[in-house]
Automatic annotation (TrEMBL), chains A, B:
InterPro entries xref list: PA_dom_sf, PA_domain, Peptidase_M28, Peptidase_M28B, TFR-like_dimer_dom, TFR-like_dimer_dom_sf
Subunit structure: Homodimer.
Principal location class: membrane
Domain of life: Eukaryota
Domain Transferrin receptor-like dimerisation: start-end pairs: 619-682
Keyword presence, Protein transport: no
Record-given protein name: N-acetylated alpha-linked acidic dipeptidase like 1
GO molecular function terms listed in the Swiss-Prot or TrEMBL record: carboxypeptidase activity
SUPFAM superfamilies in the cross-refs: PA domain, Transferrin receptor-like dimerisation domain, Zn-dependent exopeptidases
Organism: Cyprinus carpio carpio
UniProt-annotated location(s): Cell membrane
Zinc-finger recorded as keyword: no
Family from the record: Belongs to the peptidase M28 family. M28B subfamily.
Domain Peptidase M28: from-to ranges: 351-558
Length: 732, 732
């Protein structure tokens, strides 16, 4: 009986155990954990990142670039339309495309030269006999330059006009340059020749007009661009340097976005301001020329020697002009004649948009963009960036189509139109969807020219994004080295951080050099701009020498800039890694204390530059210092709170609250009232950075009486906006 | 053996079953459902609402009002400080208080009469002998009027000054009124007497100055306020009507918020504009007087009979003035003399803030507020509203302290300071925390004067909030009736809705009459203003007759306005119900289609008023019509999506996405550029409503050339902003 009892008990015990196990593990509880509970707390999957990085392929990058640069694709031309179709085909590919892709048109105000009446620059004697004519097209070295769609070099938005006058040399066309000339010369009725750099394109002409100058030429100085080299045998196709006939095209305007519809999306029905009300474009004709032609003009000039800093690499001592040419010249007594036939037209320009829908937070967007339009073939600008974008979308699209991955947040890809004319496509996009974008966008990643050169990574960004760029760049091998992109970068450009010691230097997005401008300055979205860049110890080049010329071709890019496409790959891996981390991280990888460190740094510069002068006027910088201190303290608190939280166990709404605080931090620095007349630049963290760099800033201090000056207004706004931003670190 | 086997099997089976049951039900699965999953999907608990409504008590309301009105509590006076302490004591009460409560100070620019040199209004003959002096204080009927802290009637922000001149009667002080006088009279150097109503207080003086008038008197016309009654025996303390000596005080300014710190919070360190730069205040002295004194002046006037619409209930035919008095009057040849001693001071004004922290979405705020400051005892304005707020916080605070309830979202209570001087406390609050508030605030509920009279509910609100006000008002019994507040309201004020048929009429928050202004117009937060109101068929009174006088006392309120405090209770129940629903609803009870219906309605008015005139100038309203249509279609889609969702089973992030769309809908109508010079009024859904009511609007059309007019600018912004708002209905 004992045995039986034991057996029964044993049987019972075994059965009980089996039952418990079955009951616990095999039978679904009615109130079982919904799938989304696990999904909601999922973080970045490092194995996905590894796989993604491994699949980004140099051959694909090369073929993307080859396809994109087959023909010139200036905004709204047939070549541009072909790239629209190409992008759509790729993004709608059933195996490697995105969830969806479409085009969005804007009707925008563009400026073109006249195909049948090309712009002319000539030297004419008093009897109007032409003594010299500048080239109308760049010299042909390869079939690319022969394409009839290569647009004549011109200054977009320069007015049409027929002007002539004695020539003067005005260096970079800064106000100070004209003022110097004006001390000894009567500039009224003259034509000025200026070199690129040092001042915005349009400002060279706007400044000139203030002195009565009637026309402006702009050339590329070989000292600035070619490290002094000027001969055909030393320039492309024999090197990366600009050939003597190469001309930098460009948009001659100050404001970004469509010029007729400021702050409104340029749709069919949108009100357009009268053309006469456009500001920021040249009031007098302007035309760019190559240094071969510039040499003919500058080296014949009469007058005093130009100052040392005005001299360049052309084969003569640069003189200021008599005005006009020296008496020993065949051009003696001759005028320079500009005959400009630019016309403005409303054209439909397309953005191509593509999305991957987020699985957990579809209403949070990471936007990645680049412009699509070029001036000519645009191999480096912008197609090197577009090639990278297409390779990123191919790999991510494939993972999505195969069901292997879907980001936590939505990803929006933007192939912007008409950037070269003033960041138009991206600006119109932000104007059309401004509330939606500002409410939902986590970050904007801009990769325009992806490879300027192949020495090192370069990144400019909101301080909040520094840490994710560092994380990503530490996981990518630097081409041609045995080290990481991060370590390599640190060797080329670094700073000493109070928090971290020596780290790579992340630039600030102060300007409006590419499509990040509307996202950062207008919407206050955390933005970054990523590329591969020069070894600055090896070249003085202002930018890669074929910039905006007919030589920026696939041949140029694949021969001289990145033959193995390994720098393209390094940028794709770094920017792509940042993208996936921003899209997948449970907690957004933004760091408030890094932000505070940058504010501190800017404040330090402002204090050094201004505190003493201000104190003399009875204006104290203490409130501003207090505000920055408060920002730093609360940022540290939020960082601590984040560090002490076990986010995977928290409610998704708690994580969302922290993410919203992080996402909206840059937005808190928007202040439309600090400079109401420059509404597009509302992002005022940048104000603190401005003193040394920008005239919308503390620099204006001395122009105004104390206490009632715009300076005090600005400082008060800075104080308020910093306090406002502090609240972003406080919960509830 | 069989038996044993059977026994064993049976034992085993029983044990297995027990085991399965234990395993399934008794042992917590490692991955069991976290508590927050249930919390996150919890919706409004109707039993909590019932309990809350039942506890709102008329006796408590009465005692709140008694306490709040013991002494005059004009902003920043000792009486105001006493109410600060009282609010804090109540909100920090351990048994019925809030989670926390504190004061926030702003240093604001206020205007006061001089206690030692009271303002004087007199009639003086050519030899400067005083023939008549207006009262300096209102007549004492009850001890309240004897309090030395009763401020002399004055026009806040009227400049100090000593002016005299011949008197003219200028009706309501509108531009058209002065223009009419100006046709036959030389107004230079005259004093105008005007009546309240028809035009803003400050504008009466600003308009006057344009005609060379040197001083303005403002009186309360008994026709407008007392249904014509003028005798002491018919007015307070014998009825609710204004006694002959009663004077309406008021702030004579146009802009809301502290006048020296526009768009910046008035903290110690904030930059203050020079006083000379203040706009919107009287350029000439102004002073309010009672109708007893007005009668002495108006009934002695010479000149033509005033137009019929200018006549009132004083005992004479109103004449325009010679200028000056009639020859048969003892005042013949005499001037009216204004001797004003107002002074401006910077004073610390306090907001008292209190919060109940949300359990699930603490970073979503429902804000409920009222100002605390009065002109004198302020029983109706604002203490009737403060009494309601305190009763709501008592009942909610008790539920929280007892652990019986905690709202899903956070509730913020604001007791604003210095509203009477221009909505200052609430405006500074929105300026200080503007990003945080605009990102996180679900709605703002304003209950200022809670009971004007006890006939019916009155509500003005963003169209999105109509439905929740209806829901709440259907659950409250209307005092003195057998029906609900909703049904009673519908009888007094209704409209025919295309969607719902006959419904109560919810007004639009177009003006800046109370503290909702900064929330609605500056931040675009869905706002509402709730009170109990007149039977308009029974009285013409502009407002309750003791408004802003020394007769607005507890005695007045409890004798004539709401003796049983049942209307106070009805407002507390309705507004409190709205508050709890906004705080607790899983999905925010906002309706996009109601919004679309209102836009349609406004558009209809604009089309009727302008389409023909515009067409004649070649301007089409079609784009605007299309935009509104698009808004309506996408709103309907979102409503359908919401209806078809089983939200309780959705991830909290999906619900949050919909809630964010609903919360931010009103924000999408902000457009700082539509009227850059009136930045405080950025909320432009209101533009469509404006044509009939406001000069920042389409009304300006005829002042400008076609196609380039501000009208087209505005219409284009309206179009853009409507399109922008459409995206709020679209997911991802």
């Amino acid at each position: 009986m004992l045995k039986e009892v034991l057996l029964g008990v044993l049987t019972g015990a075994v059965a009980l155990t089996i039952g418990i196990l079955l009951g616990h593990f095999a039978i679904d509880k009615g109130s079982s954990v919904p799938d989304w509970v696990r999904d909601a707390s999922r973080d970045v999957d490092e194995s996905i990142i590894e796989k993604f990085l491994a699949e980004l392929d140099t051959n694909q990058l090369r073929e993307n670039l080859r396809e994109l640069t087959k023909v010139p694709h200036m905004a709204t031309t047939p070549g541009d339309e072909a790239t629209v179709d190409f992008m759509l085909k790729r993004w709608q590919d059933p195996n490697t495309g995105l969830d969806s892709a479409w085009r969005e048109n804007y009707k925008v105000y563009l400026s073109f030269p006249n195909k049948t009446s090309p712009n002319k620059v000539s030297v004419v004697d008093p009897a109007n006999t032409v003594q010299f004519t500048a080239r109308e097209r760049e010299k042909v070295y390869k079939p690319d330059q022969e394409d009839p769609e290569v647009v004549q070099p011109y200054a977009a938005y320069s007015p049409a006009g027929n002007v002539k006058g004695k020539l003067v040399y005005a260096n970079q066309g800064k106000m100070s340059d004209y003022e110097l000339l004006n001390r000894t010369l009567d500039l009224t009725g003259t034509i000025a020749i200026t070199r690129y750099g040092g001042e915005g394109r349009s400002k060279k002409a706007i400044n000139a007009a203030k002195f009565g100058i009637v026309g402006v030429l702009v050339y590329t100085e070989p000292y600035d661009m070619n490290d002094g080299l000027v001969s055909e045998s030393e320039t492309y196709p024999h090197s990366w340097y600009l050939p003597p006939s190469g001309v930098e095209r460009g948009s001659y305007n100050i404001d970004f976005g469509d010029l007729l519809t400021p702050y409104l999306a340029a749709k069919d029905d949108t009100y357009r301001i009268p053309k006469e009300d456009i500001t920021g474009i040249p009031p007098i004709p302007a035309q760019p020329i190559g240094f071969e032609d510039a040499e003919r003009l500058i080296c014949e000039l009469d007058g005093d020697d130009a100052p040392n800093e005005w001299q360049g690499s052309l084969n003569c001592t640069y003189k200021l002009g008599g005005p006009g040419f020296k008496s020993t010249s065949t051009f003696n007594n001759s005028n320079v004649h500009l005959d400009i036939y630019n016309t403005e037209r409303l054209e439909y320009s397309a953005n191509v948009m593509g999305i991957i829908r987020g699985s957990v937070e579809p209403d949070r967007y990471v936007i990645y963009g680049n412009h699509r339009d070029s001036w000519v073939h645009g191999a480096i600008d912008p197609s090197s960036g577009t090639a990278v974008m297409l390779e990123i979308t191919r790999v991510l699209g494939k993972m999505v189509k195969e069901g292997k991955w879907r980001p936590r947040r939505s990803i929006i890809f933007g192939s912007w139109g008409a950037e070269e004319f003033g960041l138009i496509g991206s600006a119109e996009y932000t104007e059309e969807y401004f509330s939606k974008l500002s409410e939902r966008t986590v970050a904007y990643i801009n990769v325009d020219i992806s490879v300027f050169a192949n020495a090192t990574l370069r990144a400019s960004a909101s301080p909040a994004a520094q840490s994710v760029i560092f994380t990503a760049s530490k996981q990518v091998k630097a081409p041609g080295t045995t080290t990481t992109v991060y370590e390599n970068w640190k060797q080329y450009s670094n700073r000493t951080s109070p928090n971290y010691g020596i780290i790579p230097n992340v630039g600030f997005l102060t300007g409006a050099g590419s499509d990040y401008a509307a996202f950062m300055h207008y919407l206050g979205i955390t933005s970054m701009d990523i590329s591969y860049f020069y070894d600055r110890s090896k070249t003085r080049a202002r930018i890669y020498p074929a910039y905006h010329t007919a030589y920026d071709t696939f041949d140029y890019a694949s021969t001289y800039i990145d033959p193995g496409f390994t720098s393209h790959q390094a940028v794709a891996r770094t920017a792509g890694n940042v993208l996936v981390r921003l899209a997948d991280s449970l907690l957004l990888p933004f760091n408030c204390s890094d932000y505070a460190e940058s504010l501190d740094q800017y404040l330090g510069q402002a204090v050094t530059a201004f505190e003493e002068k201000l104190a003399a006027k009875g204006i104290s910088m203490e409130p501003l210092k207090k505000a920055v201190q408060l920002f730093r303290d609360t940022a540290a608190k939020l960082d601590r709170l984040i560090r002490d939280s076990d986010l995977a166990k928290e409610t998704p709404l708690k994580v969302r609250q922290m993410n919203d605080q992080l996402m909206l931090l840059d937005r808190a620095f928007l202040d439309p009232l600090a400079f109401p007349e420059q509404y597009g630049f509302r992002y005022e963290a940048v104000l603190l950075k401005h003193p040394a760099t920008n005239d919308r800033s503390l620099m204006n201090l001395n122009r105004h009486p104390p206490n009632h000056s715009p300076f005090v207004h600005v400082m008060s706004h800075l104080f308020a906006i910093t306090c406002n931003a502090v609240w972003h670190h406080t919960g509830m």
